[in-house]
Amino acid sequence: MLEVLGLAAVVHQVNSYDYDGDEHFEDSLLHESRYRRSSRKRHFHEGSYAYYDHSIPLTSPGMYRGPRDNQALLRFETINRTRDVVDCCPTVLEMVEPAGGKNQDGIYVELYRDHSYKQRFYELSCHKDILDKPCRFMDKKLHNQSRCVQQHSYTYALVKDTPNHRNKNFPTFPANGSGGVTYTLDYISVRSGCSCVVAPNKRKRNKIKHKRKNDDER
Length: 218
Description:
Elements: H1 2-8, E1 10-13, E2 22-24, E3 33-35, H2 67-80, E4 91-96, E5 100-102, E6 108-110, E7 117-126, H3 140-143, E8 146-160, E9 172-174, E10 182-198, H4 202-217
Antiparallel strand pairs: 1-7, 2-3, 4-7, 5-6, 8-10, 9-10
C-alpha cells in the first residue's frame, strides 16, 4: 500500500509541528479542511530559482511604476533577495497536506491518510499581495488591463474508491485495517503558478463595435 503512495505524492510520517489546525479554501479543495502550508523555505526541486514568501510583503503591489522605479525594484530584488530574475506575478512555493481535492470531473475525492501518514503536495501560489491585481513591470497603457491570476494543474493522488468517481483505468488497493475500503489513483487539482493575463481595453472595444454598427446602418 505504501509503495503506491510514492507514485501519488510525497508521503512523510506526521509530527506535531507538520500541521496546525484546519484551513478552509475555495478553489482546489471545495471548502474542505486542509492543513496549514509548510513554512519550510527551500526544497530539493527549487533549483537556482528563489521563490517569494507570503511573510515578506511586496513593494507597492498593483500600483503602476515608471521605468526608473521599475529598474530600482529590479535592483532591490536581485541584490537584496539573491535572485537572478524577478516575477511580474510573484510565486510562492508551498507544501500542503490536503484531506481531499477536486478531480478532473469536478468531484470532491477523499485522499488516503491514517494516523501516521498523510500525502503531501507542492503548490505554486500567487503571492497574497499580488493575486488578482495588475501585473508588475507593465507598460502604462496595459497596466490596468493586466491581472495576476492563479493557475492550476492536475497531479496524481491516492484517493478513496467510490462508485461515483471510479476510474477504470487505475486498479484499486485495499488498506490495512480499512474494513473493506479500497483506494485508487486519481487526479486532483493543485495550484501550479501565477500567470499575468492581459484583457482588451473594454472602452476602446465598445467604441469600435458602436462605430461598426453605425457604419452598417448607413
